[in-house]
């Protein structure tokens, strides 16, 4: 609290005056990060009062992102060894048990203080819910697999802080790398990040640093209030190894990183950007019982923008790749390697997905409302109670971004994945892969206009399917080698 912080400052000031200043070099560096959600956020609190998984709220009843969640994301920017050194020991069951045996302590604290991310403007936000259901290969709902969860709609701005305690200024590159990751949009928050949730972009990075061995800086730090605007200096971009890709500056930074034991997590991400145009209606439904509204309506954000969630894309691509190659069928080793393994009772029984599908916004669409009837195939008459109204959209354009993490994988597996994914993209273009519901009557169809994979851009208006396929899987595999 503010009063406790003030008391601590007075104690430090008194002790500093007694000892004639802090002799040991000690530096405190702070970052203030403003960021904006660009896709829905889901951070569960463990309660199910409103949905099966309610959003976490602070004491004011406002959604926020806990510092513990942010710290976990920051750790993944660095190698496991660097994360252990600067963020403290990873608390596994074995380490906790070993630490308590015979009074030994093998646990260390973090040198990085991570603050909760709080909403910058509490007035403008929307909490909604998403319905989900697990489907079999024929798109029939599995029994007991329906659930819903709360989300915070995109567009909300948050503020968070990072505080690092250092013995030398060379250690500042830890915080610098985190700030740069925010600036590049490489931070994803909360649950279902592999399905397009929790994406954010940085609106502003500000920093402040204090050398506590210097008396003037010490006085500045003791009077520092991070919640005041005039305490900060806004910067364009922090200097770090991720930013300096080549040249003399890169080599110098590389030596400093090696000296300080700062190692980044190996980056083997290949970005695939697919531009799409609707070839039919779309039925990723959200349900409503409001009087005057359609019985079924294409899923929209709170602001009315129709979207195709990453969960729908992931399910459609996973199923189609399983049809193209048995190695990617449900339960197969290759499928679980790339798309993740269902969680079991033990951590080692589950694995994260390596493939991230973005949420797609439909733009320039036209809305159509129509009424449908179910027909008895024997009598040709209408089925009682089977009349319903649906509101959907046609003619829109969309963009799907797929991120593939190939870190630590053999070339043979990467090539097999690239070929199978390229085949699924061609099937999407040719109408053999549809997304959402009512696919048997022409909904969920798209035409691909352009694909960018790594540094390669493939136009789907010029080449034939054979050339497209060859270029696409080569670009995916080639992007992995370039990483």
What fraction of the residues are assigned to beta strands by DSSP? 25-35%
What order do the SSEs take from the amino end to the carboxyl end, as H and E?
HEHHHEEEEEHEHEHEEEEHHEEEEEHEEH
Radius of gyration, in angstroms, nearest whole number? 26 Å
Q: How many β-strands, per DSSP? A: 19
- Mean pLDDT over the full residue set: 86
Return residue spans where pLDDT drops below 50 for at least 5 consecutive residues.
Answer: none
Shape: globular
Derived from helix and strand composition plus strand pairing, the structural class reads alpha+beta
Q: Major beta sheet, specifics? A: 6 strands, antiparallel
User: End-to-end span in angstroms?
Assistant: 45 Å
Assembly of the depicted chains: single chain
> Helical content, roughly?
25-40%
Number of helices: 11
Characterise the protein shown here.
- 28% of the residues lie in helices and 27% in strands.
- It has helices spanning 2-19, 67-75, 80-87, 93-100, 173-183, 215-222, 248-259, 310-324, 333-339, 411-430, 465-482; strands at 27-37, 112-114, 118-119, 127-135, 141-152, 157-166, 200-211, 233-235, 269-278, 285-287, 296-298, 307-308, 355-357, 360-361, 366-375, 382-394, 397-405, 446-453, 456-459.
- Strands 1, 2, 3, 6, 7 and 8 form a six-stranded antiparallel sheet that branches.
- β10 (285-287) and β11 (296-298) form a beta hairpin.
- α10 packs antiparallel against α11.
């Amino acid at each position: 609290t503010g009063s406790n912080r003030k008391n601590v400052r007075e104690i430090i000031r008194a002790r500093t005056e007694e000892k004639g200043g802090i002799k040991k070099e000690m530096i405190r560096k702070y970052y203030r990060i403003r960021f904006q959600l660009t896709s829905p956020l889901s951070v569960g609190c463990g309660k199910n009062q409103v949905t099966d998984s309610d959003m976490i709220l602070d004491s004011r009843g406002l959604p926020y992102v806990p510092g513990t969640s942010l710290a976990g994301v920051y750790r993944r920017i660095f190698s496991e060894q660097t994360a252990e050194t600067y963020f403290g020991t990873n608390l596994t069951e074995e380490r906790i048990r070993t630490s308590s045996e015979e009074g030994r302590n093998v646990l260390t604290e973090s040198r990085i203080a991570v603050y909760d991310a709080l909403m910058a403007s509490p007035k403008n936000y929307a909490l909604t819910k998403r319905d989900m259901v697990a489907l079999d290969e024929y798109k029939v709902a599995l029994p007991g697999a329906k659930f819903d969860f709360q989300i915070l709609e995109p567009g909300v701005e948050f503020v968070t802080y990072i505080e690092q305690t250092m013995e030398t200024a060379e250690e500042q590159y830890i915080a610098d790398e985190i700030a740069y990751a925010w600036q590049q949009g490489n931070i994803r928050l909360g649950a279902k990040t592999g399905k397009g949730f929790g994406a954010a972009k940085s609106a502003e990075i500000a920093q402040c640093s204090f050398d506590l061995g210097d008396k003037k800086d010490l006085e500045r730090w003791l009077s520092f209030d991070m919640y005041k605007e005039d305490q900060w200096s806004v910067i364009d971009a922090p200097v770090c190894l991720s930013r300096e890709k080549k040249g003399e500056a890169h080599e110098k930074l590389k030596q400093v990183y090696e000296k300080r034991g700062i190692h980044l997590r190996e980056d083997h991400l290949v970005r695939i950007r697919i531009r799409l145009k609707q070839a039919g209606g779309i039925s990723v439904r959200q349900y409503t019982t409001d009087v005057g509204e359609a019985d079924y309506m294409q899923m929209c954000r709170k602001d009315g923008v129709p979207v195709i969630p990453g969960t729908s894309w992931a399910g459609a691509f996973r199923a189609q790749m399983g049809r193209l190659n048995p190695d990617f069928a449900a339960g197969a080793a290759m499928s679980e390697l790339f798309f993740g393994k269902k969680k079991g009772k033990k951590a080692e029984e589950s694995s994260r997905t390596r493939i991230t599908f973005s949420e797609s916004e439909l733009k320039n669409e036209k809305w159509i409302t129509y009424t449908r009837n179910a027909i008895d195939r024997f009598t040709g008459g209408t089925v009682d109670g089977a009349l319903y109204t649906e509101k959907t959209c046609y003619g829109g354009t969309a963009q799907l971004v797929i991120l593939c993490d190939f870190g630590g994988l053999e070339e043979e597996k990467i090539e097999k994945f690239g070929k199978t994914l390229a085949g699924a993209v061609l099937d999407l273009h040719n109408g053999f892969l549809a997304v959402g519901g009512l696919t048997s009557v022409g909904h969920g169809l798209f035409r691909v206009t352009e694909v960018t994979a790594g540094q390669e851009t493939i136009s789907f208006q010029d080449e034939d399917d054979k050339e497209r396929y060859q270029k696409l899987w080569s670009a995916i595999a080639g992007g992995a080698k370039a990483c």
